[in-house]
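Reviewer 2 asked us to include a model.

Predict the structure of this chain.
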Amino acid sequence: MKKVLIVCNDVVLLSIFKRWATRSEKENALFFAKNSKKAIEIINAQPIDLLISDLNLPEIDGIELAVGLSGYYPMLKTAFFIDKNAKTFNEQLTQLSSIYFINQPESLKEFVYLADLISVIDLQVKYMSDILTADFLKLIEYQKKTCLFVIENKTTQQKCALYFKEGVLCDAMCDQLKAEEAVLEILDWTQTKIVFKNATEKKFQQKIQTSLTALIKQKLTAQTNTHSVLLAKTVSPTIMEEITLPLIAQQLSEKVCALDVTQEIKPLQFINNYLAFVIFDSAGNLLVHHQEDPAFEKKLVQISFNMGIFINIITNTLANPQYNQVEFIQLHFDDAIFGATWLVEKQIFAAFLLTATAKNSGLAKIHLDKISQSIRHKLFDVALV
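Predicted model (structure tokens):
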């Protein structure tokens, strides 16, 4: 049994969720807090495995709560609620692959779906120390925070102090490196410890003239020049041992959208209990879909209110180095079985949806593998061998 702490500043919803949790039999122990102060009291009273918190909280926000607790409880995993109606903002956040986001439940029904997925979500969420420094800095930027904090690399014991003003990175210092050079030094740090400092009485100048996004691109360019960028390991060796990615994500998505996969998916749609075939990108955009049920998207919402949960579970699992050999993931819900595999590593994946009573998911997986292989041939114009 996992102990999960839910921090939500909507007291009405929180009260509804809490009453349900009190009356219902559930797999995990759920605790509730309306602000960071109450959350700290709860976690000091008993160990918590997973924290799911609003980003926007009074006095101490969700980021500072998670960072502060991780200093005392390093084995605490953290995910953040986001407003599912803020589409543009959510698209930005979903690019932060090492941070787990969940759409804020807006009804008891949505919360029950979330509660049913806690054990699966817990497998995907990282400890704060495992979050990429670049992702953490972008989260500060997106939240438009004003703050001073120190990041320590626990492997090298290097420390870097950074100052943001209303989400703009103003200054940084790491050993003898300053400003942009200091930021470039730390962007790929993992295994870190973060400590927020009081910046109210300090004055900082705007010493960094390059945007954080530009610095991240500069770092990625330098890394790309050193290491080849390869297609997914799931691509059959009979196709090519190495295929250099010639397409940026947007171009690749557009090419997928233009595909005619009618012939490829026929074997899948003719099996018993078939509901749908879909192709998603890593941001959750539906690129290609075929469904027996015309209300496919509504059906998917009934299975789980949060499409982001599917995206996070699948992409985080398949991208996790611990699961390097995993090429397929299958999720079981009350209403359906959802199976997915990488089509293009860390960018596009293909999936099927079967009824919950289906006994032929193994056959569906075989068809999905063949469909994916055929689509890769079309995408990259590689002749069949």
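The chain has three domains: 3-130, 133-226, 249-380. The radius of gyration is 22 Å. We have added this to the supplementary material.
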